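Retro notes (design track)

What went well: tokenization of the new backbones is finally stable.
What didn't: we kept losing track of which sequence belonged to which structure.
Fix going forward: every design gets posted as structure first, then sequence, in one message. First example under the new rule, 158 residues:
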């Protein structure tokens, strides 16, 4: 039986970067990535990435709190791209959402949807014309409920 609790969604502080990194690592583990496939320096790598993204890519994170404890998070930033961006920003300025994670005991309460909505609002505010993300099977219905749809991205597993 779920007990209704007060959920607070707010912007994360830089002091919470380690917790965001921890949730990011847990996200991969929840998707079945074996521990030996995760770089042992995952914390340092993630913290360096967040620092660079905050400096250069309008990075922002949001957290969900219940009784003062962070139980979920989501990160967003400008999409740095995989090739030279020769298009003007008013035509194409992509945002990217990553690291959406809610601790198992707090899932199915709308927390991921609220966190994702906050990231969408931030990316709209910085002028993004499109937002991209990679969805896990559990996350796909959440994102679809917010208007996300599958595009023409393709992949070849080797």
């Amino acid at each position: 039986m779920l007990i209704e609790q007060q959920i607070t969604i707010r912007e994360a502080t830089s002091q919470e970067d380690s917790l965001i990194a921890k949730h990011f690592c847990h996200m991969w583990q929840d998707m079945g990535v074996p521990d030996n496939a995760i770089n042992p320096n995952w914390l340092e790598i993630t913290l360096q990435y967040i620092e660079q993204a905050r400096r250069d890519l309008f990075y922002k994170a949001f957290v969900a709190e219940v009784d003062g404890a962070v139980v979920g998070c989501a990160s967003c930033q400008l999409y740095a791209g995989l090739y030279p961006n020769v298009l003007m920003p008013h035509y194409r300025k992509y945002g990217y959402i990553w690291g959406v994670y809610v601790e198992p005991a707090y899932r199915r309460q709308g927390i991921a949807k609220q966190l994702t909505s906050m990231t969408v609002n931030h990316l709209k505010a910085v002028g993004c014309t499109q937002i991209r993300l990679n969805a896990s099977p559990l996350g796909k219905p959440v994102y679809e409920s917010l208007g996300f749809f599958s595009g023409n991205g393709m992949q070849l597993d080797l």
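Added context from the reviewer: Residues 113 and 142 are 6 Å apart (CA to CA).
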